[in-house]
Amino acid sequence: MLPLQLEAFGLEFQMNRTGYSLVLQPGAENKPDPYFEDLDGTSGVLSVLCDTTPSKRDEISSGAASKLTMEYKTDCSRLMPGQFLCLDLNIDPVTQQPKNCHPELHYANITCQSAPGIICNETGNSTFTSTTPCCPTNGHNFETALLLSIFLGMFGLDRFYLGYPAIGLAKLSTLGFFFLGQLIDVVLIATQTIGPADGSHYVISYYGAAINVLSRDNDTFLMPQSDWLVTT
């Protein structure tokens, strides 16, 4: 929201078929460019571009409004959802995650595009660099682990593949704990409850049916519920 008085600069918003347009009121050709101060303290000047040809001046004097182009310069890292799009995720075909995924912070840098009329101070145009969550992988394919568990799980090859040699050796010695352990591992791997031993994630299609396991601890904030008993 821009808390400025448009009338003071001969400007007004008009609604058309595609939305709202900032237009110049008749007789406002010599008004100064509007100076604004955003709510977060950011300030700047709205760049107003008018067609001042004699024919346009005649239209303005006769009451016709000349459309303007408004540019808002700001720090694009503080834009709210809906004010930008990040369509180029740059997915790595090998890892099926955004390229350059940080192994510890679990995020990757991507290029985003701000909404029309918003110019980023960082680049001087409408593009800027943002971050997106990602899951670092280490070459363990989900389909391979599941197939090994189904067809060769009694020999512990699924556990060897995921980096659990002790459990794999135990399954090999007991034919998958007499096939019961094999069945359990098939369920655990299919539900992605068990992952690679190094803490990485499965290589699975970025747009596939991945499962996010939600958990909570003592630092998890719980929203108050209406049926909670509150004592004072």
Radius of gyration: 29 Å
Residue share in helices?
A: 10-25%
Mean pLDDT: 77
Biggest sheet: strands, sense, closure?
3 strands, antiparallel
| Low-pLDDT windows of residues | 1-10, 13-26, 28-53, 60-68
Describe the protein:
The chain has 232 residues and is α+β, with helices and mostly antiparallel strands. 22% of the residues lie in helices and 23% in strands. The protein contains 5 helices and 12 strands. The strands form 5 sheets. A 3-stranded antiparallel sheet has the order 1-2-5. The longest helix has 14 residues. It is flat and about 75 Å long. The N terminus is likely disordered.
Core attributes:
232 residues, three-stranded antiparallel sheet, 5 helices, 22% helix
Write the topology of this structure.
Layout lengths: L10 E6 L2 E6 L10 E3 L5 E3 L8 H8 L4 E2 L4 E3 L9 E5 L18 E8 L3 E3 L6 E7 L3 E5 H11 L4 H6 L2 H14 L1 H11 L10 E3 L29
Helix pairs in contact: 2-5, 4-5
